[in-house]
Structures are given as C-alpha cells and as structure tokens.
Design a protein that fits this description.
single chain; alpha/beta; Lyase, Ornithine Decarboxylase, Chain A, domain 1; TIM Barrel; 2 domains; 9-stranded mixed β-sheet; 7-stranded parallel β-sheet; 9 helices; elongated
Length: 372
Amino acid sequence: MDTYRPAVGTPIEDLDTPCLLVDLDALEHNQSVIADTYRDTVCKMAPHVKNTKCPIIIHMQFRAGGTAESVCSAKVSEAEVMVGSGIRNILIANQVAAKGKIERLCSLAKRATMRVTIDNPRNVRALSEAATRHGVTIGVVIEVSVRESGGRGGVRRMAPGGLEQGVELAKLAESLPGIAFKGVMSHQSLPGKPDRETRFLDGPPLIQRCLDMKDAIEAAGIPVEVVSSGETFSYDIAPTMPGVTEVEGGTYMLMSHPFDYMTEFDIAGKVLGTVISTPRPGVAIGDVGSRGLVSMGALPQVDGMPGITVKELHEEHIILDMEAPARLEVGDQFLLTSGQQDFMTDRWDQHIAVRNGVVEAVWPILARGCYH
C-alpha cells in the first residue's frame, strides 16, 4: 500500500483510509501477558518477526520482558532487517538451502548469532563449506516433524527410524567445521478454536515428540542446548514442560480473529476503512480490499459493529452486509480484524500506533516484502 504518514496527534476520524492501525493499549497488554508468563521460567519467548515485521515492536517486547532477546524469522531477508536493527540472536525457523541465501546467512553470522533449521545431510554440508570459507560459525537445530503428515519439512518423528535419522543428522553436524549443533525445534498447531482444556490435553503430546528427539540425541552423547517448540496457542503449555527452552510465538502480538479463543490476548492490529457507497439497502462498500487484507480461508470481520458482516473481499474494495437496525452511511469509518495477521501486515508500509483514538506513533514495517 502507498505510504501515507499521519502526524502524531491526528484523531482517528481524520485519518486517510485505508490504513493499518495498532491499538497500543492492546499491544502492551499482549506483551505483558508474555512477560508475566515467562518471568520466572527457564523457557522464554522468542518472538517470531514474520507477524509484525517491525523491529520497533520486537524491541518493545524485549523491554517488556519474558524473552531471551532472541527472535525467530521465516526468511534470511527478515533476519537481515532484524540484524540491521540491532537484534543479535536469530533463529531462521526454516531450511536455508539456496547458495545465495547461504552466503547471506554467513554474512549475517559475522554480526550476529545465527541459527538455522536443518533436516538434510547435504544441506548441512553446504552450510559447513560456506561457513568455513567465511570464517564464521552457523548454529543448527534439527526440525522435528511431529505429525504423521504435514505441510512442513523436518525429520519425521512418527516415521519408522525417525529418531535414528535425527541422531545421525546431529552426529554429522557435530563433526563438521563451521557448524555448531544447538538442538531441535518443532512447529505444531491445533485445528479450530480449542478451549484451554483441549489445548492442555492435545498440545503436550505434540511438543513431547520434539523432546523425544532431544532425549535420543542426548542418549547418543551429544548435548542439546536448545529445544524450540511451541507458538501462541501453546505459549502457556511449553514452559510447563521440562526441557523446552524457547517458544516461537508471534500471533499474540497483533492477533487475528481466528485466535479469539485465546481470550487473554486482545486484537491489536486492525485495518481502518471508510464507506464509499451504499448502493442498495443493507449493503455498504468500503475502500479497503485484498491489497490491504487477506482472507486465507477466513474473511476479515467488522470490529465492534453488531449486525454488520463481511460478505466479499475484492482487490480494491469490501462488501459489507448490514442487518437492521445496523446502518453505515457514506463517509462512515469502520474497523476490520484480519483472518491472518502476518499476511495482512505484509500489505502495509507502516503501523499507525493509536491510543484513546489519537495517533501516538508511526512505525515502519521494515521487513515487509521479505520473500527471500
């Protein structure tokens, strides 16, 4: 989206729309939940930067507490933005295999502690060769696939010989120059909107499969320093499981409505739009579309306006249904909560931070568009 930078002190009703807002009270509340949860735990939060793509917000979380002042990123390019913004401990929570990306990873390792996920011997050897040539050390963690089938990479814990495969990969990493074997990681999720009882019943067995890999590697005489397992849905589960050292949470910072079952968090990221047409009774057209939002199987929702729902999302506009007595007129503003907030964030150049209906800050989304 084109950059429009409002002045600090601008009331929300005077903002040019569409624009991406961050409710500061909600954001700070969400960060305080994490700080309180991890205050006295060995396990710490490693915020995932793909969700906010904003170093300022990450540094806010560091100051709030509950983190080890390390982050996760999805891509080398995101890591480059974070290192350039003063963050010095990063786990790239995906495999890095392309030659050019490995070169960039080694360049980052000259300025920061870099860890990357592995699941393949050939990839580990390529990382070793590049790291040795650059005179750096790359930390590696084995990704553990904790489900029988899934859409990610990783050593398949549930497949025959899965534990043995992980142990052999750890042995290889231990033997190679320029490589520091650090531990294991896993990603897991639960379908739908599980309540707390369901989360605490179904979440631990998934994390335990990652811990099983840790135990097998340690039984082979190789120390495991890092167990990175968990995310927003399991933020309060992971620190209760001995051995887990960090949680890769990110959704909790801005939130999205599919996660509204996590009632301890508030939705902080919202898109502000304006009604541009009311072509027929019960229908309003808004000035924000898929260029500023994304559905990903869940349409955005109208915030705080009972009876008004999203019918369709098009590239440049949104169609809202109005059930009487709810009514919107041309020129009225409305707020939308996203069905997928990290993709939403990637549509914008800046977060407009507001408190009590007034702009308090404007923060650049420096990691927007980091696809490589």
